[in-house]
Specification:
Length: 149
């Protein structure tokens, strides 16, 4: 039985390698930019940009000093730089982001911190430029009174 488990682990490792899975271990510090078409997990420190990646996972305790451009991003550590993501950004409770975030969807868990601007793109892919004015308290009262009459 143990032999099959070992073969399964080897098969999973080979599958991860074929799909382009890269890991920066917790003891690793990289100075420079990274580009990949596959998945990137960072548990150490990156002093540079992630210029292209399919999925980036920044583990709790990990840090990036630089910008991140990817298809999808999950942040558990810290990022000091701007983030541009095609689909979704998830900021976990242990995360800190010092920079702007642009994506189709942004999820910030309770406890996660973002110090920067958030830009959620519309379905067409362009940032939403139309801003609607919120009703003032006086206007809201007028609307309420009109509905009561």
């Amino acid at each position: 039985m143990g032999m099959f488990k070992k073969q399964d682990a080897v098969a999973r490792a080979n599958g991860a390698a074929q799909s382009g899975y890269s890991v920066l271990d917790a003891q690793v510090v990289v100075r420079g930019d990274i580009e990949t078409d596959g998945m990137l997990r960072i548990d150490g420190r990156l002093e540079g940009n992630v210029r292209r990646a399919a999925v980036v996972v920044v583990g709790a305790g990990a840090s990036i000093v630089g910008n991140v451009t990817a298809r999808e991003l999950v942040v558990g550590g810290t990022i000091a730089g701007n983030i541009v993501v095609e689909t979704r950004v998830e900021v976990e409770a242990t995360a800190e982001v010092d920079g702007d975030i642009e994506a189709d969807a942004i999820l910030i868990h309770e406890g996660g911190a973002v110090r920067g601007r958030l830009c959620v793109r519309t379905r067409s892919g362009a940032p939403s430029g139309e801003r609607r004015a919120l009703p003032t308290p006086t206007r809201a009262l007028q609307l309420g009174a009109a509905g009561a009459a």
